[in-house]
Amino acid sequence: xxxxxxxxxxxxxxxxxxxxxxxxxxxxxxxxxxxxxxxxxxxxxxxxxxxxxxxxxxxxxxxxxxxxxxxxxxxxxxxxxxxxxxxxxxxxxxxxxxxxxxxxxxxxxxxxxxxxxxxxxxxxxxxxxxxxxxxxxxxxxxxxxxxxxxxxxxxxxxxxxx
Length: 162
Description:
Layout: E1 8-11, H1 34-39, H2 48-57, E2 62-70, H3 74-83, E3 91-94, H4 102-116, E4 119-124, H5 127-135, E5 140-142, H6 150-159
Parallel strand pairs: 1-2, 1-4, 2-3, 4-5
Helix pairs in contact: 4-5
């Protein structure tokens, strides 16, 4: 099977592959400290269950990453993925000025990916993203192996920041 013919396994980062617990404090203050939140991302510990699933998926699928992180975080994010030994893959990020809810931005990318390839699964921790993807007909693995704060969930939905 050629690389381009393999199905896609789409992985979220924050709360799925990366443990954001140490930086959620930046979102609990008013105003939220987005610069601090994203600046701390290179220090995220990996989430073992998510990393293992990505590595396992790479045996049959091309791994693709889909994050709500803004484009300005690309270099740090790519370095983090490589440092964790995660499979090489296309990294889809939010435009710096895009403040739509994660469930909208990620579904748009999933639909674009599905136009040219089979999407075998989406792995994400955001319940609203998972619900929307399932409603659209995608197979979803709900990443329930990390704890997320109410502030982070609110930021994903209302502020369109991650």
